[in-house]
Design goal:
235 residues, nine-stranded parallel β-sheet, 9 helices, 9 strands, binds pyridoxal-5'-phosphate
């Protein structure tokens, strides 16, 4: 094991311990939380190191970066978590298992079309990203639109409605943000969840706030810097 792999292994052990402790505190099973390693800004070699350490779920927020890494490290489950332009839908549908950041009816149409053309064996998973503070500038559907976007995802065969996703808005207490997301997720699950698509994922929690997210029912934590190190901002 090279030095970098050993460092990532130590970070991974710490993150898994945090997830376990948060699950114990919440009375949940650690298996009920999936760790999605966010590899943005880090090279494909780090994705391979994570694979060697048993990680299968990896996430990226830009197609330009994700597509070559997905090609370089086969066998991973790719989660797309960033704002997505409709003209990137074809590319993303060719390698991603699930898109966490679906926030408009137009994007649902583009992804459904792309997924249908991609000749996939399974539908492309989709989560509705919720703008918890109804700020239109940063990604996410306004709270009043969430059900419409979920309904559109659930309507066709090319996409599979997995649930809801959010990032805690700046300046909000994570507990407040994630409690609100849990309530929205529960409504979506009751309205649109079915035997094939239970729509029961809650994608919430990052390096700094995963404990709060798990307390409020997160099923998928998206962790980058706590695993791979602090990112230098892209120029
Ligand atoms: C970068 C990113 C993460 C991971 O953030 P960290 O603070 O590095 O854990 C999670 N979710 C999204 C949508 C991201 O863009």
């Amino acid at each position: 094991m090279d030095e970098r792999t050993a460092l990532i292994a130590a970070n991974l052990a710490t993150v898994r311990e945090r997830i376990s402790a948060a699950c114990r505190a919440a009375g949940r099973e650690p298996e009920s939380v999936t760790l999605v390693a966010i590899t943005k800004t880090y090279p494909a070699e780090d994705v391979a190191r994570l694979a060697e350490l048993g990680i299968r779920d990896v996430g990226e927020n830009r197609d330009q970066e994700a597509a070559p890494k997905a090609a370089a490290v086969p066998g991973m489950r790719w989660h797309f978590v960033g704002q997505l332009q409709r003209n990137k839908a074809r590319s993303v549908a060719s390698y991603a298992d699930v898109v966490h950041s679906v926030d408009s009816l137009r994007l649902v149409d583009a992804l459904a079309d792309a997924a249908a053309r991609a000749g996939r064996e399974t539908p492309l998973g989709a989560l509705v990203q919720v703008s918890l503070d109804d700020d239109e500038q940063r990604g996410g559907a306004l709270t009043g639109m969430v059900e419409k976007v979920a309904e559109a995802i659930a309507a066709g065969p090319a996409l599979s409605l997995r649930g809801v996703m959010a990032v805690a808005p700046l300046g909000w207490a994570p507990d407040e943000a994630f409690a609100r997301l849990a309530a929205i997720g529960s409504r979506i699950r009751q309205r649109f969840g079915g035997p094939h698509d239970p729509a029961d994922w809650i994608s919430a929690g990052m390096s700094n706030d995963l404990e709060s997210a798990i307390l409020h029912g997160s099923t998928h934590v998206r962790v980058g810097s706590a695993l791979l190190g602090k990112r230098t901002p892209l120029g």
